[in-house]
Amino acid sequence: MAEPLSPETIAIVKATAPVLQKHGLEITTRMYERLFVDPEIKALFDQAEQASGAQPKRLAAAILAYAKNVDNLAAFGPSVERMAERHVATHVKPEHYPAVANALLPAIKDVLGDAVDQRILDAWGEAYWFLADIMIGRETQIYDQAA
Ligand code: HEM
């Protein structure tokens, strides 16, 4: 189980969530440009789109929306369940999570520039991994049940 987020991290993420959401489309677009440089990662989404026609942009939108509930994660429980099921259906694995972090955090910096400093990026990184650990835990359970 992950360490709880520090009060400082929670405060930073909540304070910066509105500006990230305001630039959400730009940030998500930039994030996918960075993410899809890796063909293995891109293939996960291509298959998913063929199967459902759904927009992968929901992934980044969800991460930005999560920030608003970072101090009330119980409210996020049903979303975690839906995302975990979708991830298992599209073969997302724990080893894919660093790629999303490594695309999202630089995308935030690319778009917001001097408006974000290292302290803010570190807080978002911590918050990302806190959620990622919860998702990975639930996805592992679903994979194990299916095996
Ligand atoms: C904390 C991190 C993540 C969050 C919050 C998240 C969130 C989401 C959400 C909200 C959806 C849409 C679910 C729905 O259809 O209702 C989704 C789908 C998906 N995610 Fe994630 N995700 C995360 C990490 C990842 C990672 C690491 C990968 C793999 C690189 C990934 C790949 C996908 C794929 C392939 C889909 C299906 C896309 C589609 O339906 O077209 N996600 N994710």
Automatic annotation (TrEMBL):
Record key words, sorted: Heme, Iron, Metal-binding, Oxygen transport, Transport
Record's keyword annotation contains Oxidoreductase: no
GO MF term list: FAD binding; heme binding; metal ion binding; nitric oxide dioxygenase NAD(P)H activity; oxygen binding; oxygen carrier activity
Gene3D superfamilies according to UniProt: Globins
Source domain of life: Bacteria
Position of the signal peptide: none
Pfam families per record: Globin
UniProt-listed GO biological process terms: cellular response to nitrosative stress; nitric oxide catabolic process
Record flagged with keyword Transport: yes
Domain annotation Globin: ranges: 4-140
Similarity comment text for this entry: In the C-terminal section; belongs to the flavoprotein pyridine nucleotide cytochrome reductase family. Belongs to the globin family.
Protein name: Globin domain-containing protein
